[in-house]
Structure to design on (140 residues):
C-alpha cells in the first residue's frame, strides 16, 4: 500500500531518489508518466502493464480517447537507478510538473504522485470540506 507524504529535493543533474518506503512497493524499473493537476505518477511495472493493456485496447480512431492515451504513454518512461539509487527525471516531465528543486512524494494507494513542492502546498492548503464531501458521496 502506497501511503504517506515525503519531501525531498532533486539534485543539480535532475536526479531524485524515490523514498525507500515507496521504492520497495514500486520495485525496480518503475514507470513515471504525466498525471493530473500537473503532477507526475509513478507506477510499478505490474500496475503500468495493467494500464497499458487497457489503453492499448481503446479505439485508435477516436480522437477524444487518443489524446489522453498519447499523453500517458508518450510521456512514460521506465526508470533506471544509478549506483547511488538515483533516477534521472526527464526534462519534459520536470517542466510539466513545474519541478525545479523541492519535490513532494504522495502515496496514492496504487501509485505515487510526484509534485513540485510549491504546487503541492497550494493544492493541499485550505478547507477540506469539498474533498470530504466528495468522499462521502462515494460512500467513504
Amino acid at each position: 500500500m502506497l501511503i504517506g507524504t515525503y519531501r525531498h529535493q532533486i539534485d543539480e543533474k535532475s536526479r531524485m531518489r524515490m523514498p525507500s518506503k515507496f521504492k520497495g512497493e514500486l520495485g525496480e524499473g518503475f514507470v513515471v508518466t504525466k498525471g493530473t493537476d500537473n503532477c507526475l505518477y509513478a507506477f510499478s511495472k505490474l500496475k503500468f502493464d495493467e494500464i497499458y493493456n487497457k489503453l492499448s485496447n481503446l479505439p485508435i480512431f477516436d480522437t477524444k480517447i487518443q489524446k489522453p492515451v498519447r499523453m500517458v504513454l508518450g510521456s512514460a518512461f521506465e526508470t533506471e537507478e544509478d549506483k547511488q539509487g538515483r533516477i534521472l527525471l526527464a526534462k519534459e516531465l520536470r517542466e510539466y510538473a513545474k519541478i525545479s528543486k523541492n519535490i513532494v512524494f504522495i502515496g496514492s494507494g496504487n501509485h505515487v504522485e510526484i509534485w513540485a513542492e510549491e504546487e503541492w502546498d497550494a493544492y493541499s492548503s485550505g478547507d477540506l470540506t469539498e474533498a470530504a464531501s466528495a468522499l462521502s458521496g462515494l460512500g467513504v
In short: The longest strand covers residues 2-9.
